[in-house]
Amino acid sequence: MWYDQNNIEWLSVYGIRYGIVHVHFKSQNRIIKASANAYAQMISDQEKLA
After folding, report:
1. What is the tally of structural domains in the chain?
2. I need a labelling partner for 48 at 20 to 30 A (CA). Which of 25, 33, 37, 41 fits?
């Protein structure tokens, strides 16, 4: 799945971005998106149930 999304991103010449981390291309800074925090919370909740 990641492979397909990566190919789409490269074909769109950086127009569409997927993933949970935004990369600012000029500075190479990585910015965690809100979806990353939601995913971390979901995993934490699952671990509490196990």
Report:
1. 1
2. 33
Extract the tokens encoding 27: 């500075």
- 3-class DSSP state of 50: coil
Q: Which residues pair with 22 in a beta bridge?
A: 31
Per-residue confidence in pLDDT tens, the chain, 50 aa: 556 666 666 666 666 677 899 988 899 999 999 999 999 999 999 988 87
Q: Which pTM value belongs to this model?
A: 0.54
3-state secondary structure 8-39: HHHHCCCCCCCCCEEECCCCCCEEECHHHHHH
Instruction: Give me the count of residues in the chain.
Output: 50
